[in-house]
Amino acid sequence: MLKIAIDAMGGDFGPEPIIDGLITAFKNNKNFTAIAVGNKSEIEALVPQQYMKRLEIVHTDDIISMHDSATDALKRKESTIYKAIDLVKNGDADAVISAGHSGASMSLATLRIGRIKGVTRPAIATLMPTSENQNTLVLDVGANVDCDAKNLFEFAIMGQAYAKDVLQLDEPIIGLLSNGEEESKGNEVTKEAYELISKMPNFAGNVEGSDIFKGTVDVVVCDGFIGNILLKTAEGVADTIGQILKKNLKRSLISIAGAVLMRKVFKSLKVRVDYAEYGGAPLLGVKSPVIIAHGKSNPKAIKNAIFQAINAANSNLNEDIEQKLNLYK
Hints:
The structure is a single chain. The protein is of the alpha/beta class. The chain is built from 12 helices and 11 strands. The chain starts with a strand and ends with a helix. It has helices spanning 15-28, 40-44, 70-73, 80-89, 102-113, 149-165, 188-197, 209-214, 224-249, 253-273, 299-313, 317-327, and strands spanning 2-7, 32-38, 55-59, 95-98, 123-129, 135-139, 174-177, 203-207, 219-221, 281-284, 290-292. It has 2 domains: 1-119 and 285-318, Isopropylmalate Dehydrogenase, CATH 3.40.718; 122-275, Isopropylmalate Dehydrogenase (3-Layer(aba) Sandwich), CATH 3.40.718.10. The mean pLDDT is 88. Helix 1 (15-28) packs across helix 11 (299-313), helix 4 runs parallel beside helix 5 (102-113) and helix 6 (149-165) crosses helix 12 (317-327).
């Protein structure tokens, strides 16, 4: 039975939404157990007695805050995220989830759990909604600000493997994010990356930012600097559109009547752009599943992050990544 390690104290709102999400996951899936790392008395107070038999608690009071630097986490061996990641490193857990300091999670996972053989740099992947009934996997969205062509090539391999093994997509199509679709577009790094990625099956070539939301391809590759800006911009645009709609609908009775009819449409839109629907962002390229959840994660997001970790742990993801990296050496 799979065992999931959880940083129970790392989120913006303390252990309550994290443990609530864990309990919901327990209710919906009986095939896993968990280890919650954090203040034992606080955690125990949130767990109904019938679920205690599926939960182990590792007590510690040290929490890496958002104001701490990622390098501090390497020295604070009693912190929740350090202990949670070490549970995976030592084989006591199969995957780890944290809604805490993302830089600390990435650094510790890379150094303590280790990289898959052949991976130069792990990457954070995230799902972006599209106009079609699907999502686009984008990576990297923040782990690596500066990348070379080899890094982008590895991201393409990892993203395609994740889309196939975890998202269950047949023959995932890859696109390289650039400032134009033509092969000649892009900077020197993307042009070199184009040549490398073109060796892979189902490479669609360069794609533009708008293609991400059209669902033109299944996987979009970029460096972490561009990817993080893209992610934050998309979140901001979604929020702004929501605010504009609310303000305009309040201005007339006709709009209000229309809003009643459009309620289901708006509800569907909210679901599509809600990060809680996806749970968290997987850190691809490390030896065990690491899911980095949003600091503001609610119970639904934590539940889905747990399910994402379970799906990854039950797949052949890492084996496929290593095999494909060897294939293109």
